[in-house]
Design goal:
Mean pLDDT of chain A: 94
Oligomer: homodimer
Strand order of the largest sheet of chain A: 1-2-14-15-4-16-3-17-18-19
GO biological process, one term (chains A, B): tetrahydrofolate interconversion
Structural class of chain A: alpha/beta
CATH topology of the largest domain in chain A: Rossmann fold
EC number (chains A, B): 6.3.4.3
Pathway (chains A, B): One-carbon metabolism; tetrahydrofolate interconversion
Largest sheet of chain A: 10 strands, mixed
Number of strands of chain A: 23
Organism (chains A, B): Bifidobacterium leontopitheci
Strand content of chain A: 15-25%
Number of helices of chain A: 17
CATH architecture of the largest domain in chain A: 3-Layer(aba) Sandwich
Pfam family, one (chains A, B): FTHFS
Chain lengths: 505, 505
C-alpha cells in the first residue's frame, strides 16, 4: 500500500518529503487513508523589540511533546530560520532551547538542506535574466530585487554596472523575496511555475513585462526541485517536526508553506503551526492571507505566548496582549494564554493567574519551557485538549478578494491593530504609489483589489505610536508594492523602519 | 568492523561521505584495510574557445565504465559544476552525455546538496564581517570579494553603500573564490579553519589584517559542515563517481578536492581525476599545485582528450595538442591520446591513427563516447591497462616553495606553454603589483615565494598569441594577487580576458 514513506527520502540527519507528490496522491485516491488534523496556531504578544522573542518556537516544541506524552498524535510545522542571520550572530537560532529543542538544531539553523540558498539563487537568476532582457531591449526597468543569504548593511543601496550604466539597486534578504512567497503559497510545481511566469520582471515604456514572456520557466523550477520538499526532523523527545519555508513575518507573510501544513494535517491529529512575531504579524497573515485567500485551514485553537516580564518591562504597551487574545476569541479561535517563565520566575505563577482571571482570559498555561520542556505544563492542558476534541472542522472564512485596497487595509487596522478606519492616514506620496500600483496591475491584466494584502511593518509596533492613548492611535500608509506572481500586494504601514537587509550587530 | 559505510549518509538520490572522518580513521588505524589506487589524469587539448569542450567529463565516465567492464575497480572524481552557469543556459551541464552519463545528471548540474551555495554564503559572510570591521575601525580596505552563485554581467563592477560611502566592489562567481580553494585544499576542518583565519581580510593603515584577528571561525566552519563532504553518485552503468569541489580552471585551481581523491584512492584501484580545460590549465594545476605543493599523488597515466575536428577547424593551433602529450610524457606520465568522435566521424579512424603514428603518439583510443560510452573503446585499453598494472607508486616531485615568483612563472611558461624565460614579459604595472603583493605578504608574516603559483589566464590560450610562430610566442604578466589563506599567489597572464563574472548569453 502506498504510504508517506514512498514520498520520503533521507537527507543526512533529516528526511525530506515530496509534499506535492503526496498531496497529489491523496487527491487522486479519495479512498486512501488520511487524517484530518486540526490546526493550533502558536502566536505571541507583540515583542518589545524585534530581537526579543517571547518563545514561540520553544512553546511549539514543548506543546507537541506535552500533547504526545498524553497520547495525542501532535506535530509541529516551523519556518526555516535565515542561516545568514544565525551565522552572523545576530540571532541565536530558531529551533527552541533547553528541554524544548530539536534533536539537530545545528541543521535547522545552518541552512538545512540548502532550501533557502536555492531560492536565493533562483531569485537572483531571475534578476540576471531581467538584466539580459534590458540588454535585448525587452525591458527598461527591473522591478525584482537581488537577494543575499547573509546580512550586509552596505547592500541596502548599491549601484550595479558601476562606471557604465550605474543602475541603482537594493539587495534584500532571501526571506523577504517574492520567490519565497511563491514557494510558501504554491501547491504544485505547475502552480509554482505559473506564479513565476506571472511575476512582473519590470517595465518597458511604462508597461509591465512578466517573466513568462521571456524566460525558460524550467530553469527556475529545476533550481527549486529540492527546495519545495519539507524537511522532517524531531524534538529531543522524538516528536515529529516539519520545517519548510521561511518568509519573514514583518516584511513578508511569516508562515510556513501551505503544503507542509496540509501534509501534516493528513498525517497527524493536531498540527501546531508557528507564525512569526506577534498576533498582529504572523497570526494576522495566517488568518487573513493563508486562510481567507489561499484555502488554508482556519485554526481550531491558538496559544498566545508571552513572558512574565513583558508587561512589567513596558506597562505602556501592556494593552497589546489582551487585545490579541480578545481578537482571536472574537474570531471563534479559543485562545490560550501561555506564559513562558524564565529562571527565577516560578514564584510569580499565582500572581500571573490572578491577572489572567481579572482579564477574563482562559486559565493560562504556565511553565519554564527551557528548563522543563512540555513536562512542565502537560497537566495544565485539559481545557486545551478538550477544546480540540470537541471542535468540528472549521469552515472557510470570507475572502476579501475584490475589496478596494484601502478598505482592506482599514479592515486590518481596525481588526488586527485596534485602530478605526478614520484614523488610517496616508503619508505624502502614498496615493501616488497606490495609483502607480493600480495602473501597473491594470496594464498587467489583473486587479490590484484581487491581490491579498500583506501589511509590511515593524514587528514591534502595531500603530504609529503604540504608547499613545487608544483614542489617539493612528496607522499611516506609506507605499504600495505589487507581487503579482505571489498574488500579493504589500502596503507599508506606520512610521517604523522595515529591515529587509539588517546590519550585522 | 569499521568501513566506509560508517562515514556515509544518504542525501536524497546521492550519498555523502565524511571524507575528513574516514581519512582520519585510516591515519589513526594503520592496520585498517585500504587500497592504494593509482591516479589517471583526464585532461584535454586547449579548447578553441572556452565554451567548446573536448569531452573530458564524458571521457572520464566512459573510461571508468570500460575499465570496470574489464574487472578493474575504477572510479572517477569530478568537480561540481557551477549551477548558476547551467541554470542560466550558458552551458549544458557537466555530467557527461548519452551512454557516458551519470544516473542523475540533474542533481549534479543543479546544485547537488547545496555545497557551492554554502561556500558562497560563507564567503559573503566573511565580507559582511569585514564590513563590520570597517565600521569598528579595524579595517579600512576590504580585499575579499563577494560572490554570486549566478552570473550577472552588471555585478562585475558595483558600488555598495551607495549614496553614503560609495565603496567600489566587484562580485565574482563562487567557483573563483578563495574559500572554494580552501575547501579544495584542506584535509580537515581544523586546517580549513586555520586557512580561513589566515585569509587576509583587508588592510588597516596599509597593514594586512587577517580574518583570524576578528571573527568567530566556528561560524564559517558551521556553514561548511556539509559542503566538505564529497557526494557519491554513479554512471548509468553503475560505476561509482565522486563529485566534490568546483574551482574554475582558468581563474582558479581547476581540480576536485584533495580529500575526495585521497578517499577514492583508499577505496579503489584506479582513480580517474578530471581537471578543467586543457593540459595547460587543470592538468598543470594538478601537477604543479596539488602534487608539488599539497602532497597529492602524481598521476600514473594521463588520457588527453581531443575531438577529431579540432585540428582541422583551426590548423594554426594544431601545435598545442602534441605539445601537451609530449610534456606529460617528459614528466614520466604515460599520455594516451583519446579522440572523442562525433556523429558521422567514424570513417576518420584510420586517418586519425596514421596522424597519431606520425606524431609518435601512443596508439590513440578512439570512440564515439556519447553514442557508445565505454563499450565503444573497451577493447582498445590493453596498453593503457598494462601501463597501470606495471606502474609502481609514483614518488613525490620537487616543490617550488621558496623559488622567486618570477622564476616560478617562467618555469611554468617554459614547461607548460613552451615559451622560454626570455620571452616572458611584464605589462606596465606588473612590477608594482608584484612589489605590493610582496610587501603585503611580508607584513602578514609570510613569504610570497612560499605560496603556490596559480596561473590566471584564458582557458583557450597558452600565450599572448598562440597563432604566432613558435619563436615569437610570448607570455605577458599582468598582475599579482595573494590568497594567503589558501596558500596561493595568483598571477594574471597573457592579454586575454578572464571571466570571474560571465554574462548570460
Amino acid at each position: 500500500m502506498t504510504s508517506i514513506e514512498d514520498f520520503t527520502s533521507q537527507y543526512g540527519l533529516v528526511r525530506k518529503i515530496d509534499a506535492f507528490g503526496y498531496l497529489d496522491y491523496l487527491r487522486e485516491h479519495p479512498e486512501a487513508p488520511r487524517k484530518h488534523g486540526k490546526i493550533v496556531l502558536v502566536t505571541a504578544d507583540t515583542p518589545l523589540k524585534a530581537s526579543r522573542g517571547e518563545g514561540k518556537t520553544t512553546t511549539t516544541i514543548a506543546l507537541i511533546d506535552a500533547l504526545r506524552a498524553r497520547g495525542i498524535d501532535a506535530t509541529a510545522v516551523l519556518r526555516q530560520p535565515s542561516m545568514g542571520i544565525t551565522a552572523a550572530g545576530s540571532k541565536g537560532g530558531a529551533s527552541g532551547g533547553g528541554k524544548a529543542s530539536l534533536t539537530h538544531p545545528e541543521l535547522i539553523d545552518w541552512g538545512l538542506c540548502g532550501e533557502m540558498a536555492a531560492i536565493a539563487a533562483a531569485q537572483n537568476l531571475l534578476v540576471s535574466f531581467a538584466e539580459k532582457a534590458v540588454d535585448e531591449g525587452r525591458l527598461d526597468t527591473i522591478l525584482v530585487p537581488r537577494v543575499s543569504e547573509v546580512p550586509s548593511r552596505s547592500l541596502r543601496s548599491i549601484t550595479v554596472d558601476a562606471g557604465k550604466n550605474n543602475v541603482a539597486e537594493k539587495v534584500v534578504l532571501t526571506p523577504t523575496s517574492e520567490l519565497m512567497q511563491i514557494v510558501v503559497l504554491s501547491r504544485s510545481m505547475d502552480e509554482l511555475g505559473e506564479r513565476v511566469a506571472a511575476m512582473i520582471a519590470g517595465t518597458k515604456d511604462g508597461q509591465p513585462v512578466k517573466f513568462g514572456e521571456f524566460i525558460d520557466l524550467w530553469r527556475i523550477t529545476n533550481m527549486l526541485a529540492d527546495a519545495v520538499k519539507p524537511a522532517l526532523t524531531e524534538t529531543v523527545n522524538g516528536s515529529p517536526v516539519y520545517v519548510h519555508g521561511g518568509p519573514f513575518a514583518n516584511v513578508s507573510i511569516g508562515i510556513p508553506t501551505l503544503v507542509s501544513v496540509e501534509m501534516a494535517c493528513a498525517l497527524h491529529d493536531v498540527v501546531v503551526v508557528e507564525a512569526g512575531y506577534g498576533t498582529d504579524a504572523g497570526a494576522q497573515k495566517w488568518l487573513d492571507i493563508a486562510c481567507r485567500e489561499y484555502g488554508a485551514q482556519w485554526p481550531s485553537a491558538a496559544v498566545v505566548v508571552t513572558r512574565a516580564s513583558t508587561w512589567r518591562d513596558d506597562p505602556e504597551l501592556a494593552w497589546r496582549y489582551p487585545f490579541h487574545v480578545d481578537r482571536l476569541e472574537k474570531l471563534d479561535i479559543p485562545a490560550f494564554p501561555l506564559i513562558n517563565l524564565w529562571e527565577g520566575e516560578d514564584d510569580q505563577i499565582t500572581a500571573l493567574r490572578d491577572t489572567a482571571a481579572k482579564l477574563e482570559f482562559r486559565d493560562p498555561i504556565i511553565g519554564n519551557l527551557y528548563r522543563d520542556g512540555g513536562e512542565g505544563f502537560g497537566d495544565q492542558l485539559d481545557a486545551f485538549v478538550s477544546v480540540l476534541e470537541r471542535a468540528s472542522m472549521p469552515s472557510a472564512r470570507d475572502s476579501h478578494k475584490g475589496m478596494p485596497l484601502i478598505e482592506n487595509v482599514k479592515w486590518v487596522a481596525e481588526n488586527a491593530y485596534g485602530v478605526p478606519a478614520d484614523r488610517v492616514k496616508f503619508k505624502d506620496g502614498f496615493l501616488d504609489s497606490l495609483a502607480a500600483a493600480t495602473d501597473l496591475c491594470k496594464e498587467a491584466g489583473i486587479s490590484l483589489d484581487d491581490l491579498a494584502l500583506v501589511a509590511v511593518k515593524s514587528p514591534a509596533t502595531m500603530t504609529d505610536n503604540d504608547r499613545a492613548p487608544e483614542a489617539e492611535r493612528t496607522v499611516t500608509l506609506k507605499k504600495v508594492e505589487v507581487h503579482a506572481g505571489a498574488g500579493l500586494v504589500h502596503v507599508n504601514l506606520t512610521t517604523s523602519l522595515t529591515t529587509p537587509m539588517p546590519k550585522i550587530v
